[in-house]
Design goal:
single chain, 425 residues, mainly alpha, Growth Hormone, Chain: A, 2 domains, globular
Length: 425
């Protein structure tokens, strides 16, 4: 019976892994909606994305502490419940036609996504019994995460169709219902599943000695590679989110005039290429160092973006779904195609940055994980700044911000990631 319960828990963890990307990815096409419905600027359209990601700054470390004190089951149940409430508020914002309520929903959803990110990886590893089996489950979960990120802009883009003055948040209701349904089902299954809690049991046996949290954080941050690494992860998440978000706004703007459905397909290709990149990265990761991998992908990403920015204003054929769900070749800006190709590069950046940043940290690696969760808020901050640049200078010109961020990551890989030498006793 316990084995069957674990199988169910594994399956629902896969769904939750996908939901992290699904709910987070909703803010991309939702930006198109709020820009039309509330006559928002490009910068204001990114406030929902900011609200979603800024929640990580508040919840990153607390989520880790909750997991450590209450275990996987309680933390995951709380995360799922908060997620249901957050998406529910987003649904209510469509009824109230309120931008403020929409932002609250995005913020609450961000709390849930942060908690799920904190619990899903270690829970899958535990359910798999650790080792190769645990890692295999995490990789399968990561694949579903990328797949959901591919689907959501296509789905919501189809629901929006042509962007008009009548475009409203309520157009995305079917996607919100799917999210709430998965969260409700997940809550019930987790509630009645037997989740192993080896860390809680070990802590209980050891008498749960108290640790000075602030002292642990201070000692972790004494490692310069971690300090430079958390800056790199802040910029990386902003790059990962900013590339497709601004591209979506650009394609659906009056100067380009592509429907939300077609633009969603193009953006979905970016996330699909991230899935491909992760699979390739997993294959070559054992043979190529994180330093080399990061230096290569960050420099290639710079080349892709700069090329996309300087290409002439011409359109090329691109496979996409139309508003009626028919599949055909449509015309999209050539520069956007090069922005989309960056998905191959951003796919492996998180793991490589983390690997370089925590080298030599030893027992402070878990604290570093919490700090990384806090810095995920960069996924909200950078797109907001990029949106403001797009308002004043233009969509294409706003990508200079991402070029600068990628340049830092390149320097981090080659120079700043050098581990802090161990102090001799």
């Amino acid at each position: 019976m316990k084995k069957n319960g674990n199988v169910l828990a594994i399956v629902i963890m896969f769904f939750l892994f996908a939901m992290i990307s699904f709910v987070t990815g909703l803010q991309n096409p939702m930006a198109i909606i709020v820009k039309s419905q509330f006559e928002a600027t490009n910068a204001m359209s990114q406030l929902g994305n900011l609200a979603n990601f800024i929640a990580y700054a508040f919840m990153g470390l607390p989520a880790g502490f909750i997991l450590k004190k209450y275990g996987y089951k309680v933390t995951s149940l709380a995360a799922v419940a908060v997620g249901f409430v957050g998406v529910g508020i987003s649904f209510l914002s469509g009824i109230a036609e309120s931008f403020a309520v929409y932002l609250i929903g995005a913020f609450v959803s961000g709390f849930s996504m942060c908690m799920l990110n904190t619990v899903v990886n270690p829970m899958l590893n535990t359910l798999g019994g650790g080792g190769n089996r645990g890692n295999q489950l995490i990789q399968f979960g990561g694949s579903l995460n990328s797949l959901a990120a591919t689907i959501v802009p296509v789905l919501v883009g189809y629901l929006i169709g042509e962007v008009t003055s009548e475009t409203a948040i309520s157009d995305a209701d079917p996607a919100l219902f799917i999210a709430m349904g998965v969260f409700a089902l997940a809550f019930v299954i987790i509630l009645f599943s037997q989740i192993p809690e080896p860390e809680l049991e070990a802590a209980k046996a050891a008498g749960q000695p108290k640790e000075n949290t602030m002292e642990s954080i201070s000692k972790a941050l004494s490692h310069k590679n971690l300090v430079f690494g958390v800056i790199a992860i802040f910029l990386y998440v902003g790059i990962e989110v900013g590339i497709p978000n601004i591209a979506n706004l650009y394609m659906t703007s009056p100067e380009v005039g592509i429907s939300a459905g077609v633009a969603g397909t193009v953006v979905g290709m970016y996330w699909l290429l991230m899935l491909v990149g992760r699979l390739v990265g997993g294959i070559v990761g054992g043979k190529v160092s994180s330093k080399v991998m990061m230096a290569v992908v960050s420099s290639v990403a710079i080349v892709f973006i700069v090329t996309g920015m300087f290409l002439p204003d011409k359109f090329v054929k691109f496979p996409a779904f139309n508003s009626d769900l028919s599949f055909s070749l449509v015309e999209v800006p050539l520069g956007v195609v090069f922005f989309v190709l960056c998905g191959l590069c951003t796919s492996v950046m998180w793991g490589s940055i983390f690997n370089l940043a925590v080298e030599g940290l030893g027992k402070y690696t878990s604290i570093a994980s919490g700090l990384f969760m806090v810095m995920v808020c960069g996924g909200g901050v950078l797109p907001l700044i990029q949106g403001a640049i797009a308002d004043s200078c233009g969509y294409v010109e706003s990508y200079w911000l991402l070029v600068a961020a990628l340049a830092y990551i390149f320097i981090f890989a080659l120079i700043l990631s050098k581990p802090t030498p161990e102090k001799k006793a």
